[in-house]
Amino acid sequence: MTKDHTDTKSPGFSWDAVQSALAGLPNGAGLNIAHEAVDRHAAGPLRDRTAFRWIGEDGDPQDLSYGKLSALTNRFANVLEALGVEKGDGVFACADRIPELYIAALGAFKHGAVFCPLFSAFGPEPIRQRLERGKARVLLTTGRLFRQKISALTEQLPDLRHVILTDAVTADTLAYPDLMAAAADTYAIPPTDPEDSALLHFTSGTTGMPKGAIHVHGAILVHHITGRHVLDLRDPDVFWCTADPGWVTGTIYGIITPLLMGVTSIIDEGAFDAVRWFEILASQGVTVWYTSPTAIRRLMRVPPEEIRRYDLGRLRHILSVGEPLPPDAILWGRAVLGRDIHDTWWQTETGGIMIANTPAVTIRPGSMGKPIPGVTAAVLERREDNTVAVIEAPETVGELGLAVGWPSMFRGYLNEPERYARCFSDGWYLSGDLACRDADGYFWFVGRRDDIIKTSGQMVGPFEVERLLLSHPFVADAGVIGKPDPMIGEVVKAFVVLKPHIRADDDTRRELMAFSRKNLGAAIAPGEIEFADSIPKNRAGKVMRRLLKARELGEDLGDLSTLED
Ligand code: WT7
């Protein structure tokens, strides 16, 4: 996998500084995430501590100690070795939150492969796109997901040499239990350079297909200090990060950081259910809980007297990420849970939390908090010539930027150096978010600068949806926006222009809905389709989603000077 160290022309930033910051860390295996997260503990007093406890759909827990996790991830690294997987090769997983996915991730880190998780609610089209673009060499998945979404794709993916099924056997796949049984449970981690690629996450852009953000071993390791300063993890905490590893929160804070901190993590294999979540918090004695506004909004619908039936006495610290955390959620936390909810802000690209309400910050409901130590954030103005200026005046909206060189910075977009370079200007990384800063240094989220949709806390690129709709024989044109929704933030809404003679009726709408769900999956497919006579385009032919959105919201249409006609 190629890494791209585009010169970001930052004054005062050097990779040498990053390297020397790493020099003091234990170096048992070069600097390998899985060594630091698992083997280091397995060789010490935490050997028998539960690293992960999976709660199955039926409520039955399954525990893996640090010692057992070390042996199993050794086995998986040996499996990769036996399959001829080389350093830098892509090892992908598409599965729910099952133990095999976590073992594969850590085994891949040990072997020097690049791990890439794909959300199990993706349909075949986003899965194929990402496997192809990431040149996946190995894919771990389940029998059901393989049958439903993947088996028909493998012929189109020449780079994909091996598909491993966790729970089924077919003619052209390998069986995880057999491979693991045949593999040795000791493994010598090859020397790992802090700059070796470890983790790949695809994230949506407004234009073009999703981009693959690359993270390296050393960067992720250094930034795990957020496990102490933001998550406030202490010995012997029971931590529950509710995010799915298909998204970056679910790998960085759902797998890596809690292990580095030596705590026990709870993983719920089941789908969201408000009552079940309170049950888990109480019965597992969760002490630190990292969740999302979409989940919190749903939990807020449970009557307080029902919530009070659960003993949440061990819960010490609650955090949120992914979307704006509304002030009423904080007030609910105080009134019903008796605790503050600490908002945190970051992105796939940042590799870890950047702005937060740490335990040391007095919460201002509605604010994301302050930049954490080691991070410089600012509100920026983009000038016409692509340079930027820092907006010093408080309470002024601009683009949220980070000074280049923060510890967990992504190292590139896979095979797209130009796209990476476009994220930077004058030593700043431009986040695409709009924000303002108050006179006391608190940051307040305002919105996105681009058309990216946030639905249930997950990013959806409108282009990916438009492209799929355009591939349907009924569709002449399509434009996709996020329509504000009180529960899930935004719903994906598609405006569709039909070809002549295609009827704009419920049958057509149902057909297009079913087509989208089948190909894109529930995570990306539009929740609403509206027929339109035309899609507004600018002179360059770009869909003017801003206009579609303003029309949807009944707002002033604003500057129409670039509209084609
Ligand atoms: C985008 C990044 C890395 C966390 C999971 C999402 C939005 C994130 C907040 C917050 C308001 C937030 C931003 C950001 N976002 N945290 N606390 N308040 N908005 O990672 O999928 O890369 O999404 O999520 O728009 O740019 P992601």
TrEMBL record:
It is an enzyme of class 6 (ligase). Keywords: Acetylation, ATP-binding, Ligase, Nucleotide-binding. It comes from the Bacteria. It holds the Pfam family AMP-binding. Residues 41-414 form the AMP-dependent synthetase/ligase domain. Its EC number is 6.2.1.1. One of its GO terms (biological process) is acetyl-CoA biosynthetic process. NCBIfam families: PRK04319.1 (NF003313). PANTHER family: ACETYL-COENZYME A SYNTHETASE, ACETYL-COENZYME A SYNTHETASE 1. This is acetate--CoA ligase. It comes from Desulfococcus multivorans DSM 2059.
